[in-house]
């Protein structure tokens, strides 16, 4: 099996901490799985009352060994994106191009992405054109006996500067994933994902910044209570306790509830709540 892209290293642990948590918002997502896949979503912020919405259509053409995908996106900030991708031209190669137009700011951007994967390596090269001199984002992941080593660099040809350079090392076992990262030689991080049973997952995240000597520690878990209910919880070294649940009301309808409690100042408020509803038609 091909190694993951650099952005997916440590994803199993991140999902434990990020998936299913919505705070200070009411969220609605609707999607269809017909010949043309349509996704529509919206959020209302409970404090400000601001409403954001987005619409996405996806059309897939699968002929012989070629797979062609066309995606159109729009949101209420008047940002429109068109993306086209094709795979199957060469083994392990995928080519993607997209264009973005911000109607409010009257700005345009074009991005060309290429990807190559085999059993031992995953290569990605993204080139974004906002001007004549592009921003290049390149990454590589190499696999060997369960170990994954990755490197990512972002280079701006306009001012000839390296905007970011990141390193990652990951070890993947059957029910265990360990990942450590170094970002810009300033932020050092690590994560552990452990599948304790078919129902229970455990995650650990740590980070330390040499720039401001700030550190963080978080522990999270998710438990599949039954076929219809998943429970989630996480806590960090700032004494922020988050609780969440995903409830399958019926086929295609999932309700998400989440809360964040400031345990250090419990009586002073600052707690957050959120509700999400996902409909699959």
From TrEMBL:
One of its GO terms (molecular function) is porin activity. One of its GO terms (cellular component) is mitochondrial outer membrane. InterPro entries: Porin_dom_sf (IPR023614), Porin_Euk (IPR001925), Porin_Euk/Tom40 (IPR027246). It comes from the Eukaryota. It is found in: Mitochondrion outer membrane. The keyword Ion transport applies. Keywords: Ion transport, Membrane, Mitochondrion, Mitochondrion outer membrane, Porin, Transmembrane, Transmembrane beta strand, Transport. The keyword Membrane applies. Belongs to the eukaryotic mitochondrial porin family. This is Voltage-dependent anion-selective channel protein 3. It comes from Macrosiphum euphorbiae (potato aphid).
């Amino acid at each position: 099996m091909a190694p993951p892209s650099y952005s997916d290293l440590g994803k199993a642990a991140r999902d434990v901490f990020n998936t299913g948590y919505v705070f200070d918002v009411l969220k609605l997502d609707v999607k269809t799985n017909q010949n043309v896949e349509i996704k529509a979503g919206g959020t209302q912020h409970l404090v400000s009352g601001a409403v954001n919405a987005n619409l996405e259509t996806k059309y897939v053409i699968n002929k012989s060994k070629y797979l062609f995908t066309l995606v159109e996106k729009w949101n209420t900030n008047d940002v429109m994106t068109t993306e086209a991708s094709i795979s199957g031209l060469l083994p392990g190669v995928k080519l993607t191009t997209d264009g973005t137009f911000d109607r409010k700011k009257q700005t345009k951007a074009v991005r060309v992405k290429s990807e190559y994967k085999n059993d031992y390596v995953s290569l990605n090269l993204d080139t974004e054109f906002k001007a004549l001199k592009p921003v290049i984002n390149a990454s590589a992941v190499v696999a060997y006996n369960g170990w994954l080593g990755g490197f990512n660099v972002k280079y701006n040809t306009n001012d000839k500067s390296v905007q970011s350079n990141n390193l990652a090392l990951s070890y993947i076992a059957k029910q265990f994933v360990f990942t450590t990262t170094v970002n810009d030689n300033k932020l050092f991080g690590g994560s552990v994902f452990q599948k304790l049973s078919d129902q229970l997952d455990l995650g650990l995240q740590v980070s330390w910044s040499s720039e401001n000597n700030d550190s963080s520690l978080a522990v999270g878990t998710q438990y599949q209570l039954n076929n219809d209910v998943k429970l989630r919880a996480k806590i960090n070294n700032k004494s922020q306790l988050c609780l969440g649940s995903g409830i399958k009301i019926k086929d295609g309808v999932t309700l998400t509830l989440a809360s964040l409690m400031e345990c250090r100042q419990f009586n002073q408020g600052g707690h957050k709540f959120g509700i999400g509803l996902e409909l699959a038609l």
